[in-house]
Amino acid sequence: MKPLLHMILANYRMTVRNRMALFWNLAFPMIFIVLFGFLFSTDFEVDIGIAGADTNATSEEIAGQLETISAFDVATGTADGELQALEDGNRSVVIVFEPGEQPEQVAAQVYYDESNPQQSQIALSAVQQFLDQINLDALDGPRTVTVTTAPVSTNDLRYIDFLVPGILAMSIMNSGLIGLASAFVTYREKGILRRIKATPFPLSQFIVARIASQLTIALAQAVVLIGLAKLLFDLRIDGNLINVFIMVIIGSTAFLSLGFVISSFAKNQEAADALANAFAFPMLFLAGVFFPVDSAPAWLQPITRAMPLRYLADAMRDLMVRGATLPDEWFNILIMVVTATVGLLLSLRLFKWEASTA
Amino acid sequence: MTSTQAQRGATSDTTAIRAVIQVVQLHKRYGDFTAVDHIDLEVGDDEIFGILGPNGAGKTTTLEMIEGLREPDGGMIEVNGIDAIREPNRVKHLIGVQLQTTSLFDHLTVRELIALFAALYDADTSSERIDQLLALVSLEEKSDARANQLSGGQQQRLSIALALVNDPEIVFLDEPTTGLDPQARRNLWDVISGLRAAGKTIVLTTHYMEEAEVLCDRVAIMDTGRIIACDTPLRLIQSLEQEATIRARVARGLDLDQFRELPGVIDAEIAEDQLSIRTHDVQTSLTALLALATEIDLRLDNLATTNANLEDVFLNLTGRSLRE
Ligand SMILES: Nc1ncnc2c1ncn2[C@@H]1O[C@H](COP(=O)(O)OP(=O)(O)O)[C@@H](O)[C@H]1O
Ligand SMILES: [Mg+2]
Questions:
Q1: Structural domain tally of chain A?
Q2: For residue A221, what are the CA distances in angstroms to A291, B150, B166?
Q3: Which terminus of chain A has a smaller tally of CB atoms within 10 A, N or C?
C-alpha cells in the first residue's frame, strides 16, 4: 500500500505545481463559465410585450400563463407603446391580441425585430411553441381553452444552467484525454517509465496511482466549477450532487482510458497533443457543450452521436439541472463504461515502456 | 580471455570468493544485428567491475539484460543465485540501477524524488535516511532544488542516490561519468569508491580507459558485442608486450621505416606531424631514436613517453582506437 499511496501523493504534488495543468484543468473552464455566463446572461431572457391582454378571457389566460414562465419577462401596455418599445430594442417580441371571429377566440399578431434575427428567432420560436400548444389544446373543445402547465421548451433553462454541465464534461474530457496522454508520452520519451520499470513497483500500480490522482483532481475540479457558477450566477441545481460526482468519476474513467490509448499510439508529446486535440476539438462543438445539438441538422446527428462527450454532457446536464437520477441515465452511463473498457483493453495491448528507437 | 578466465574460474571454485553475478553465453539480437554475442561474465563480491568499450559495443544492452529491462535471446544470468531471466522482480529488490539516460519527474525536488523512489521499493523513507543518502552523494545543499535545475554532475549523483534507496548489495552504473568535466568526474569516482568501501558490489560501464584503470578492480573489454579480455587493469596492461609509447612532433614527410627499424620498436606511425612509436623497451628505443635524430639532423619537439594503458590494450586487441 505504501508505494501506491506515495506515488499518488507525488502525482498530486506534481499536478499542483504544474502551471500548465492548473491552467487547463481549472483556469480554462473557469474562464469559459465566467465569460459565457456574463455574455449570455440575458440572451435567453425573452422580453415579451403584450397589448390587448384584456380583449377577452382567453387572452387574459394566455397572458397570465406567459408571465409564469421564468424565461419570459412580460410587460403589458398599449399596442403603440409596446411596438415602440420593440423598435427601441427593449422587447424581443410583442404580441398584440385582438378579438377573434367568435367571442372566446383571440387573434394574436406577433411582431419581432428583424434587425436582431438571432434573438428574435429564439423569442419567436418560444412564443410560437407556446401559442401552438394553446391552439392544440383548444381543439379538445370549442369553448374551454385549457392551458397546460407543461414546460414549453428547454428555453426555461437559462444558458448558464445549460453551459455549466457542458463545461464540466469538457474539462473532464480535457484532463483525461489531453492531460493523461501527454503526461504518459512525456514519461516514456524521457525514460521515466523505464526507470520505474527498473524498480519493483508494477506498471499496473503506476497506472492505478495515476488514475486515482486524476479522479480526485476531477472531483476537485467539479466542486470548484460548480461552486463558482453557483456563486456568480446562482446556478440551478435540481439533481443530487452526489450523483453528479459519481458521474464525474464515471466520465473521467472513460476519458482517461481514451487518453491511455492515445499515449500508446503517439510517438512523442507533440504527436500526443495533436492526436488528443484532433479528438477533443470536434467534440467541443459537436457534442453539445456550448449549445444544444438536438436541433442540429439531421446529417450531423449521427456524427454527434458517435462522440462520447455527448453522452457525458447529456448525463451531466440531466443530473444537474433536470433532476434526473443515475438509473435514468443508464444509457449514457453504459456508453461511458463501454468506452472505458474498450480503451483500457486497447491500451493494455498497445502499451510500450520505451520510446521506439528508430 | 580464455586462459585468465579459466584460471579465475578455477580459483573461485576453490576459494571463498563468491560470484554475485554470473552470466553464461548471454546473447541478444536486434533484428539481424547481434548486439551481445554469447558473452560470459563473473562478478565477485565487493568489487568494482568495469565494462570498457566504445559506443555501440553492447555495454548498455548487457547491463539492462541483467537488470531485467531487456529480454535476452538466450543464455543464463544469475544474480545472488537467483535466475534473473525467470525472476526479474526478485532481482530488482536486490539491485540498484542507474540508467544511461533518464530524466526524472519535473516538479519534484531532489528530496521528494529520493523519498518517492525509496517508497517504490517499500524501503525506508524517513528524513534521516534521505539525509544520509544526500550526504553520500554530496547533494545536501541541493535537497530542495528541482532535478532539472541540477548541473550534469549533480544529476548523475542524484541518479546514483536513487540507485541506493533500497540499500542494494549490487549497484549498476551505466556510463556514470559520461559528459562530465574532469572535476565532476573525479568527484564521482570518490563517491563510487566510497560505495565499494561500504561493501557494495558495483558494475559500471565506461568508454574512458582512464576511468576503468583508476576505478575498477577488474575490467571486461567489450567490442562489437563480444568480451575480448577480462582481468585486472594492471594484468591487462602487462599482458601487452608493449611497455610505452614515445611521442614527438616532427617535420612532415619523413620515412616511417627508419623508425620501425629501431631496436625495441613494435610499430611506428605518423599522423600529420605527430610521430608515435610503440615499444616494448623504452630505454633501448629512446636511445636509438635520439641517436637517429642526431644522425639525420631531425628535430624532435615535445618529446614524451607514456606508459602503456588500457587504450593500448584495446588498440592491440582490435586494431582500432577506443574513441572514434
Ligand atoms: N532497442 C534497440 N533496437 C535496435 N538496436 C539497438 C537497440 N539498442 C541498442 N541497439 C544497437 O545495439 C548496439 C549496442 O548498443 P548498446 O548496448 O547501447 O551499446 P553501448 O552501451 O556499448 O554503447 C548498438 O549498435 C545499438 O545501435
Ligand atoms: Mg551504453
A1: 2
A2: 22, 33, 37
A3: C
pLDDT tens for A317-356 read 989 988 888 999 999 999 999 999 999 899 888 888 777 6
Supply B308's cell numbers. 602503456
Find out whether B44 and B5 touch, Cβ atoms under 8 Å: no
Provide the shortest C-alpha distance from residue B87 to chain A (in Å): 11
Calculate helix-pair angle for A308-321, A330-350, nearest 10 degrees. 140
C-alpha to C-alpha distance for B226 and A271, rounded to whole angstroms: 38
Flag whether residue B126 sits within 8 Å of chain A, measured between CB atoms. Answer: no
Domain that holds residue A247: 159-350
Summarised one tens digit per residue, pLDDT across range A28-85 is 889 988 888 887 765 556 778 888 888 787 778 788 877 877 677 888 888 888 888 8
Q: Which residues of A touch B (CB under 8 A)?
A: 2-3, 6-7, 10, 13-14, 17-18, 190-192, 194-201
Q: In which domain, by residue range, is B81 found?
A: 3-238
Q: How far is the CA of B241 from the centre of ligand 2 (A)?
A: 30
Determine the angle formed by the axes of helices A203-233 and A241-265, rounding to 10 degrees: 130
- Tens of pLDDT, residue by residue over A95-110, are 888 877 777 777 777 7
Nearest to B234 by CA among B135, B307, B176: B307
Domain stop point among A152, A172, A191: A152
Domain closes at, from A130, A152, A174:
A152
B59 C-beta closer than 6 A to ligand 1: yes
Cell numbers at A226, concatenated: 460548480
The CATH number covering residue A50 comes to 3.40.1710.10
Q: Which three cell numbers stand for residue A144?
A: 374551454
Q: What are phi and psi of B262, to 5 degrees?
A: -65, 150
pLDDT, one tens digit per residue, over A143-178 is: 333 333 332 233 456 788 888 999 999 999 988 888
Please check the confidence at residue B13 and state whether its pLDDT lies above 50.
no
Which residues lie across from A111 on neighbouring strands?
A94
Give the contacts of A15 (CB within 8 A, at least 6 positions apart): A21, A22, A25, A213, A217
pLDDT at residue number A137: 59
Q: Collapsing DSSP states into helix, strand and coil, what is residue B303?
A: strand
Is the pTM higher than 0.95? The answer reads no
B296 lies in the same domain as B147: no
Q: What does the pLDDT read at residue B12?
A: 40
Q: Per residue, what are the HEC states of A306-344? A: CCHHHHHHHHHHHHHHCCCCCHHHHHHHHHHHHHHHHHH
Q: What is the ipTM of this complex?
A: 0.82
